[in-house]
Specification:
Blueprint lengths: L8 H8 L15 E3 L1 H8 L7 E4 L6 H8 L3 E6 L8 E2 L14 E4 L6 H10 L6 E7 L6 H9 L4 E5 L5 E3 L14 E7 L7 E5 L1
Helix pairs in contact: 2-3
Length: 200
């Protein structure tokens, strides 16, 4: 039977979640909440400090899992979504004491590099930054140079589809995503090669 395929180049980018090819408008502040299962799986893979800063906490989907797992969690965000204990622009933070713990978040994708840089600047040597992002974060010549400067210790690629829901609306966006996500782990001071692993 002949398939009725009417897709085009735009269809490919839409499936990959490219912001300039999305079917519907991107959320203004790039709020796409992470499926809680993603952080549950990460906690089986990595050991973190008891103190965690979730710096783009949204509606608390990651923070709540961390709290239930026994972590002390600082939950902040730029926008009040009825969860953050502090409202702040994470990228605008300056002249503050080092955060004596790790930083875990799903950053606004268009500011991913800035979030990584800022997070690494705020933690002492040996602490970790964990970012949940699409696999496309690894692409591009400029990104290659960034990763050379800030080497990723481990990339955990999701072997099944985890979901990110626009505005935290998992009832509407509950189907498996066409996009591949991964956890990216930086350890401040790490200088070795990146370790690639798969999970779930």
């Amino acid at each position: 039977m002949k398939k009725d395929w009417t897709g085009n180049k735009k269809s490919v980018f839409t499936s990959l979640g490219a912001s300039n090819h999305a079917i519907e408008e991107r959320e203004t502040h790039d709020y796409y909440a992470t499926e809680p299962k993603a952080i549950e799986l990460l906690l089986d893979l990595e050991v973190f400090s008891k103190n965690i800063w979730e710096c783009a906490c949204g509606g608390g989907h990651l923070s709540e899992v961390l709290l239930k797992a026994g972590f002390s969690v600082r939950s902040t965000d730029l926008v009040d979504r009825n969860y953050a204990s502090e409202l702040m622009d994470f990228l605008a933070i300056d002249n503050v004491e080092l955060w004596d713990g790790d930083i875990i978040t799903n950053p606004p994708y268009k500011y991913a590099e800035e979030f990584v840089n800022k997070a690494l600047s705020l933690i002492p040597k040996g602490r970790k930054v964990a970012m949940f992002m699409g696999i496309q974060f690894l692409e591009g010549k400029k990104r290659k140079e960034f990763i050379k400067r800030c080497p990723i210790k481990t990339v955990y690629v999701s072997s099944s589809r985890l979901n990110c829901a626009k505005n935290g609306n998992f009832d509407k966006y509950n189907s498996n995503s066409a996009r591949c996500y991964a956890w990216y782990i930086w350890e401040k001071g790490y200088k070795g090669d990146t370790i690639l692993k798969w999970f779930n």
